[in-house]
């Protein structure tokens, strides 16, 4: 702990224990918006390899992959990536190769992550790979596991997974209970590694970044540059403040967010947003984000259940929607949603578009215009239409999502920045350079804070903005 405190001191940070939260990371100087607060390489990481997509174990790249010829499980995109992982993979490869082929192919990313955790610890203990203040097994030991709060079913699952890890490693005297506890640690401490556009690529354990606690109104954001986790301040953070990121999708109502936090991280959030639970403004916000729309299409009031329980009354105009009408649309929506594909293979894009269009129409009838479900359906349509290169309809849906994004991701949120970026790209493709410039400027304003300015993604964004600006001014001068 002392060694870690010294390493953090150099970064103007310190760790303290707070009774209701456990360890917390505090600043010892002011941080400006966009500044990197802390970054860390993973102690261990694995890509989310599936039959549909594989990635390099070292850099998560998905092209030019070659399978490890011995274990046939792990992929690398180059010799240098394979070399960088070799000390660890040599041991993993030996262990995996002893399994029957079918069993080996069924080893999940979570099992691999645990195997790598044990192998890395072994190699550090034997000093085959170096350890440091921010990179050692003691930091993993210090992570919270919440063992006493986990339900029976989950414990049984962790015990089964621990047995499989033991079977693969075949280490005499290995402690199954400790492996099960480590699975519980991974559940509330590991992070999903995403690319710059927040698409999930894999999972990593970053034991120092794991000290950062959650807020639904965070002052920082955790993003990834390759496999490195980087925490950026998204607002001015004064000296002595706690560094806070969001662990979950913050768009939901307070009850939805609290449920997600309780289920995965086993705590009740008391952040400034959550402390409003049950107050009028919070009830209003939940009814807007997750409730029904007014019967009058021109009214954007929110609906609350009538005291007799027979319907929902608009809090703006007083019109009532009957329970039966709502039930009817909800049931149509359910049967349509059951038909919607979870993932869309390319040959099914057209079919998916029609299903999601029908869902969107029904959701518009049922939900408030700022509904999160409606926003998510439009987001799906936007993605599929982009795959179909139908830029114009994709842009229409993208524009419809923007006001909801602005409401649910206020301030400097990467998802809002990325949505402006998509809008700008589509406007540019459709020749609407003037609006493209406006959207890309909004994207840059947010993303240079959340993502920094030096990543390939941001450099590409700056180039796109310059190109759009040049084209807009050329168009303007030729029109003159
Ligand atoms: C990734 S760890 C964060 C570091 C942790 N506080 C520690 O002592 O190691 C996640 C756990 O921290 C606690 N935690 C995180 N944010 C919290 C918050 N806002 N309020 C209360 N507990 C929180 C919960 O126990 C959660 O499962």
Automatic annotation (TrEMBL):
SUPFAM superfamilies, alphabetized: SET domain, TPR-like
SMART domains: SET
Pfam families: SET (PF00856), zf-MYND (PF01753)
InterPro entries according to UniProt: H3K4_H4K5_MeTrfase, SET_dom, SET_dom_sf, TPR-like_helical_dom_sf, Znf_MYND
Family matches, as Gene3D superfamilies: 1.10.220.160, 6.10.140.2220, SET domain, Tetratricopeptide repeat domain
GO cellular component: nucleus
Entry-linked PANTHER family: EG:BACR7C10.4 PROTEIN, HISTONE-LYSINE N-METHYLTRANSFERASE SMYD
Record protein name field: MYND-type domain-containing protein
Annotated source species: Prunus persica
